[in-house]
Structure formats: C-alpha cells, structure tokens
C-alpha cells in the first residue's frame, strides 16, 4: 500500500480506503465487518470512513464493535464520522437534522463516540453545508470537538470553495483549529469541484481530499449496461434516486469503451476507474466500497493498474469520459 | 408549529414558546408540568424558558423533574436559565445577588445544572445588566460556561443596545463566545427597545430575540377592564407592583377596541396580542405563559390569527395601541 | 458592614477583612478559627486572607476545616491564597521556593485546594515578584488556574507598578485572564506604593487593593511605646526582624500623638489607624489580624471611627504621620 | 550542585543531569535505577532525561517505577520525554513513527504518562524535526499537552534554528504555549548548532539548551584510543553506527592531548570534556550518562574541574579540538 498526507496535514492515509455507506448493517454484520476490516488492515488500508447517518447510526455501531474485536493499537487506523442529517431514531425535531448548529453538533459527536465505543474519532466532517447556520458557529463547534479531545482533525463534505475558505479564515482569525480536508464526490464523470472549484485551495490552505464514489455508484463497473440487475445497489428500494444516472445510455456506452482499455491492461473497468482517481495528486485517499472480501481484493488491484496508466492512456480515457462529465 | 432561527444563530426555536415565571412551583407542580410540557412538545413548542430566580430555584427543579419524566431525546427541547438575582435560599450575601460578577456566575451555572438535573443548558442569559461589573468580566464568565460545555449559547435580558454591542465587541476581540440573543419585554404597549434601540443590532451582530410578556402581564387579555379580579396574577400579593399598569383606564379602553378586531377574526384579544408580536420578523420566539393546558391551546391559536393579520389590520391595531406605548 | 468592589472587578469585599498570617495554627486552632470566622461572618466580613506559606501550610488547613464546619453557602465568603515561598514540609528543592515558575505554580494551586478542601479558591496571588521568571510564564500559569476552574481572580502582592502593568498587558495581548488586584503593605507610615507608585494603575487597569498590616505589625496600637512587652508579636522568636521598627522612638512618639486624636473620638489608636486606611477609596479591603474575638470586635469599631474622620482630622493625622513615612 | 534557568524560563535545572538512553532497561533495572536516582538526587541533580523510544518504552517504565519507590515530592525532580519514532511494540503503522502529526503526538503523551505512572511530565520534546507535518500542527499538539495539564514546558531536539523560530512565531501569533528549550548534541567535536546556528535564538526567544553526548559517545573518555574494547557502548551490536567516529585516529590523538591537560588538573579526560560543556552559559544542563553510581560520581567531579578552567586553559583546549570539529 502507498500512503499520502491528508493535504498539508501530517496525517498519512492509505491511497485506497474503505467506506461503510450502504454496506454496514444493511449488507455487512459485525462478523463480516471484522473479516473485512482485518483484510483491509492486512492490505495496508488505514482509513475507515463512516457517518452518523449511515444505516441510522448502526454503521458506527457495527464498525466500533468490529474494531474492538480486532483490538489493534489505535495508531493503526483512522476512523471518520460526519454530521448533518441527524439520527432518525431520535424522532422528529427541528434541531435534530439538516443543520450544523452548535446544539446539534455537540450532541452528535458525543453520540458517535458512544456508538463507536471510542475515546476519540480521527476525522470529523460537516457532512453537507448548512446555509442557515453562520459558518463561525459551525467552525467553533468543530474546533471545540478537537480542543476537548473528542476528535483530531475536522473537515467538510460537498462544501463550496467559498465556504471552505471562509471557515478556514474564521479559524485563522480566532485561533481555532482549521478545517484540513474535504470529502467530495469524484469520478470520471464528476470532476468539477475537485478539478476547478477547489483549484486554489490546495496550495492556499493545504486542503486534503478524501473522495467518494469512484465508481459512480456502480455505473463505472459496467454492470448497468443492460439495465438494473437484481441484487445491485441500483435495485435497492432506498436507492431509487440513483436509477436514472445508472442507466444513462451515453455513459454506459462510454463505460464499455473504458472496459476495452481496462482489458488491454488485464484489469476490470472498476479497477481502471479507481486507478484513474488515484492519479490525481490532490486526492489523499479514494474511499471505496465493498460488501465482500473478494470485492476489496478487486479494488486493491487498482493500485497496480495506476502504475500502468501512462500519459497516453490517461489521454485516451479523458477523450472518452470528458464529454460526459456532468458535475 | 413554525420555527425561526435565533437571530443569525443556527438554533431553531418555535414561534411560540413556554415560560415558567410565576407559574412553576407556585401554580404548577411536577405532575402538572409534565402534562403542560407534553402538550407543548406535541404542539411543536421546543423552547422552555426558565431562570434561577423563578420561584427561588423551584421552577428549575420542577421543570427538570418534568423533563426527566418525559424522557425525550435532548435535541427535542431547548431550555434556558438566567442569572442575576441569586437564590434567596442561600441567604443574604453581598456577592449572592444583583450581580454578574465571575464568582456569582460560575456558581450560578453549576447550581442551575444541579437543579435541572441536566448536563448542559441550551441558553443562558444575564438576566439584567450589572453596571457594577465590567462587561469583560461578565463576557468571560458567560463564554467560559460554553467552553466548559455547561451551556450552548449565551445572551442578555433587558440590556441596553450599547452594552450588548460592547459585550459582542469584547468577545470578538478576545475570541470568546459572543452573545447571540436578548430577552426583552415586548408587547403592544412596550416597544421601544425592540423597535428602536436595538434596530442596528439585528444586522450588525445578528441579535435574536426571545420576547416576554406578550400580554402585558394579562392586561391584553381584557380581564382587568373592571379592576383586579380575584385569582388573577394582579391579585397575587407579590405582584402588587403590576397593579397600577393593569388597571390603567386608557389602556383598558384600548384593549376593548382591540377585542373588537379580535372578535372580527373569531379570536380572543390575547390571541390577537400574541399574534401581533409574531408579526415582527426580528422576534425569534414569543414566550407565553400558561398554568393550564387549556391556556396553552388558547395561546397556540394565535398562530392562525397571525396569518389573518393583513397590513390593513396591522394599521388599525397600531392606531389603537401606538398612542399608549409607554416603554 | 460596608462593601467595596475589588478595583474595577465585580467582586464585592467587606471594607474590613480577616487575615490569618501568624495567627492560624500558631495562635488559633480549628475550634478558635470556627469561633473567629463565625463572628466575622456575623459582622459582615466576607474576605478571609491566607497563603500557602502561612504556618507552613497549616493556616490553609485550619481555615479549610473551620469553613467546612461552618457550612455556609460558598457565595458568602471569599478565600485567598498566595504562592511564592513554597512549603518547607516538602523539603529543599530548587523549584520549590522563591519562584513563580510554571512547575511551582501548577502544583501549588493543587496543594492549596487540597489543604483547604475547597473546589476553588476565589483569589490567588503571586506573593512576591520573581525577577528570574518571565512575566509571561507567570501570567499564563495564573490565568490557566482560572481557566481550569481552580481560581476565580488572580493578582499580585508587593509587585512594582511596572511589573503589574506588564502582566496586564501580556494578558490583554494573549487574551488571558488579567490580574485584578494587588496586596501591598499600607499604613500611616508606609504609603508610597499605594499613593504614588500605583497611582496610574487604578484607572488604567482598574487595579484593586487588599492591603495588609494596617497597624504596622502592632506599632500603631501603641503597645510598643515602652519596648517589647512579653506575649506580643514583637516578642515572638520568628518575628525578630520586626523589633527595630516596632521600637522606633520617633514613630512611637507619633503614635502617642495619634492616640490623643483617637481618644477625642472615643476610639483606640488601632481603630484610628485602621479607619485611616479605609479612607483611601483605592483600598478595596483592609486585611486585619485578630487572634481573639474581642480583638475582632475592636477592629470592627474602626468603621464607625472612619465616619468621624473629617478632612480637618485627616489633616491633623497627616501632619503627625507624614514626616515619618518610611516606605 | 549549581542550577541554571532553562533559557529564559523560570524552571531551574541542575548543571549536570542524568540521561537514560542506552542505559535504562538495557544496563539498568529498577533496583539499579532507584540506586542511581537516589544518588543523583542526593548530589543535587534534579533533571532526568528520557524518551518514548529509549529501550522501546521500557526506559520510561523503569524510571517511573524507580521514582515511585523513591517517593520524593514532585517538585524535587524534572522529568522529560520525547516524541518522534514511536514504539516498536505497537507494530508497524504509517502514523506510528517518524512523525510529529497530531494523531501520533496526542496518543504518545498519553502513553508516556501511563508508562511513567505520572500525572504530568515536566518537559516534552519533539525528538526530531518532521518535514512532512506543518509546524503549526505540531505546535498546536505540543501546546495542547500543556493546556490539558499533561506537560509543563515543550521544546525540540535537533531542529534547525529556522524551524524553532517558526514554531515560536506560530505560538506567539496564535497565543499558544511557546517552545522553550532545544536538546542538541554538544561536545568538543560537535559545536556548530549550539555556537553558530542558534546564536540569535538565545536572546530573541530565550531558548534554553539541554545538551546530550558531552563525551561524544565515549570518544572523549579516551577509552577508544586503541580500538573498541569489549563491554563498551561501541561494542554493542545496536551501536555499530558509532564505531567509525569512535575510532577516528585524529580525534583519538586529540583526546590524548586533552588527557594531558586533564591530568594537570588532577581530572579525567571525561571530567574535562563535561566541564568544558558547562562553561558555555547558553547550556542550561548537560545530560550525562551513567550505568553505575561510581560513573555518576565521576561525572559530578566535572563541576570542580569547571571552576579550574581559566581562559588560558580554555584556549589550549580549543587549539586541540577546534580543528577537528565535524558538526
């Protein structure tokens, strides 16, 4: 495994990391999580992504129990969580969801620590921007989590460049802990935030990226070329919002073409797509999903593929994907 | 229920909220409080106002026990308390009352947390200004409560605009938690602080308002038009200071006229008076009082009345009340 | 009892307060301390002065046990301690004494809290200046005690005006808790620090004064006019350093003259001397000593004497004492 | 024993101090450590140097147990530790070693406190510079250790002057605890950092020095003049990296010449070498090694030798060593 710094921060994360969205609790129980985390750690993966909202809090519980069973020294892994949507199990309350206000955030970190069974969480994120809370209020709450020893680093997910810079500037002015990373969607068809909007932030504030959805929710595996197969994420009831993009004809045709390049390298289309993300030096780690160890091994194959991606191949890939970039 | 931000802060409070002054412990025991809070929460009210001095500390105890029995997730409600007058039960001591000095404030928050049986209080107020303590001393103590995790937001009650701005500026300069809300008296006959004195603060520092006495201590219900009926607040021995204003002839005549407008809308005068307060967008929440569930339901009716208050009706109301504004 | 603010701070202290130097543990055991503190509290005295070094730590222990037995609400009394000389019982170590470095100060506050059996101490002082420790190091340590909730206010004792101002400026620049009071020697024959050196500090930084030795170690009682009587402080073995000034002929002659004025007012010379100190509005409280309740009552008589001190009498007193001022 | 301030800081350290590198756990068990520390404390030594990495954590454990058995008041000794290389016993992890990132540092201090069995460590060092972590991240973590009460002072070891100044400036700008000391190698043949590179730092930021290797790993004892004797540090398997410099012919010849001067003073060459280091007033303390009490007594003899080092003798020493300075 290779490691990169989280932007300018001193923390080192593996180029590939493991997410828990959709999978934990839904597809993966504690036993399976133990198996997956053990395999990932063996392969050198050291970052495990999570969020309060994944599986309504169960994802944190499953991961926490699995980590406890693995009993690795705490320095061996980096765990994240993210705050914004709140927990459905707490019922409907106006300060419970869709917010980054102090009341929500201060109880959210305590809840996550309890569900994980950890004394601190390495990375905490604002899962989405909240236009209805002053950035200063959010920055103070996130920084306070670090001061209180409940978290080590904080960042954002899917924020605008302007809001990230505002958060950084407020922290600098008031001597608070600054945001160090952003978690954007980033794959062959979704590139604008990472490549254009954030362009100045990498040097100016040392922003690191932990990117999600390298396979465009599965589209880049090629498995949706003939519609939505049973048993896939696209077929899950709660994932209906993904169906249209997963069955986009032009994109599926492009995926077929990318498959040809992948085949030339003895790789799968998915491996090619993941490898492509790692080629961007601004990316600190690519969060990949896997519900079975075999899938994890498959993803890991992307690292070798990345070594084969010459400038010429990168150009061929770009020629196929660039015209279809939609975000 | 509709919700508003607490000024520029991200916290959301219900347009109507429930106070405990006079009522708790005096008129409302724990059983009754449970019933009232349950009804309020059911109606979407999420802010419950309190103060150290209400019923000599018993109001916090009653509310705390009632909240414990209701056992709602903490995110569902916002609780306040206020510090200034101290607790008579602690005996007579020169640093026990009429002060906002550090010694008083630091023990006051600990006392309130204990009486409430809560781990933190959402909103803490300086109940009155203290001209004998430097604002910086008070700002540091209030901000320290937040840093220590004992409170989430702090504000003032019945402070001058100049003192609020001074507190905000000290916090900004020394990187402390800033005041975010003020609790002023505000009703048809008492309007100057909210409408004139604080005018610049709403935009400049994002001040939120949690207003008290929407019914002018009951005057705006119309029940004092023929003097002080037995069993009313005005008849309580400790409320003698209210009697003169409650029996003011001109104001009672105006209340009669307002009653005519209310009747046109199928509403009570009290509902009209509460509705009028909610029409001011600077008001975050109107703190209402109620000693029985029926009164609470009555108050809630004000929300529908507010929807009926056209600019024309607002002008008619103003024409009646404006000449009698005395604060 | 009358009360004054501690300089510009909001804390209120009684005009007369009670010290424990020399007396506690040496002349006063826990039972006697309970009696004295009860009498003092009854008389409205709310400030009890102490120091780590008094009676080698025993003075804090005796006062702590007495306060515990009295079981008064914490708001009723203000307790101080002071750090500089360390505790002999800890043996000889180079960082144990004559220092205000961080190592010493951080253990000193913890030791005092333990000896007192209190959760916080109201006022903590740097007992003397330490030219061998940077003022910033001392300011940070004192401020940290307050941030950690172990103390409420901090100040200095017998520091130069320049050092006090430097400490204040460092705290202002780094947003730390500022020093609010100084404890200087102040009596009819020792006036320069209070009246000249600190002159600008009262307005500029709001410095409060808790003055010690209003009777010049007993000289101003008149009891040393014929030498050192047995049983007096001047006769104590450890107080040899006081003997020369206690038997100064010119000063004892002046004390006789002051006694004449006192007699005119039906007061003792000691009462006159204490009353004179309270006439300076820059003095927040005069720390008096007493080993028996009768002495305490005597001291309290000074308050009535102060009311009788007309400008004319003040001039007569000054004419006698001013020429002999030696500090 | 004589004592010096740690640079401008108020902390006082003995001119000679005792290190634990190589010796503890390897050559010295708990019983021997008790004997050595007792002898050192008796001689007035008050600073005991340690590091997380020494003997893989065992050095901290041995020293902690020995200190516990000695049961001296905490003010009597100053203990250090240093962070950078991590603990091999925690296995191989990318954030476990060769780093000064927040994740590593925050767990390192907790681990050291546990191994020592202490509530705080007096001096904590960044054991080496980490070019892959922003200095601000490291400064915040080190300062946070102090704010949390886990450490009293922080510093660096073998950092460049530029990096030390950067760390100091970041702390000043953000109002954090500043670095106060640096631990460089310093002996007759290794002088550039202390004498040239840091020259401006002594006055500008008050840097103190706790220097290591006064005997150049034993070279300056003269025992390597005929090669590597069995049983010496140079013969230890893990110390192979030292052999070349230990057997340098020119340096060993110079050591012989220094031995002549030492003999004139009735001293050993080692005593002369240690004495020479203490002559530099920028040095706060010279960390010496000893695996037996006799060695410790030998080292202590250097203090008397230092008193004999006249300017003339210092010139003679310089004439011998200066041409061979290699660092």
Please state the second-level CATH architecture of chain A. Answer: Alpha-Beta Barrel
Main interface by residue count: A-B, 27 and 24 residues
Shape, per Cα inertia axes of chain A? globular
Main sheet makeup of chain A: 8 strands, parallel
**Alpha carbon gap, first and last residue of chain A:** 30 Å
Number of domains of chain A: 1
Spans of chain A of at least 5 consecutive residues whose pLDDT stays below 50 are: none
CATH level-1 class of chain A: Alpha Beta
Average the pLDDT over all residues of chain A and give the rounded result. Answer: 95
Q: What's the name of the CATH homologous superfamily of chain A?
A: NADP-dependent oxidoreductase domain
Helix and strand sequence of chain A: EEEHEHEHEHEHEHHEHHHEHHH
Strand order of the largest sheet of chain A: 3-10-9-8-7-6-5-4
Helix content of chain A: 40-55%
Oligomer: homotetramer
Instruction: Count the DSSP helices of chain A.
Output: 13
CA radius of gyration of chain A is 19 Å
DSSP summary, beta strand count of chain A = 10
- Beta-strand content estimate of chain A: 5-15%
Structural classification of chain A: alpha/beta
Here the CATH topology of chain A equals TIM Barrel
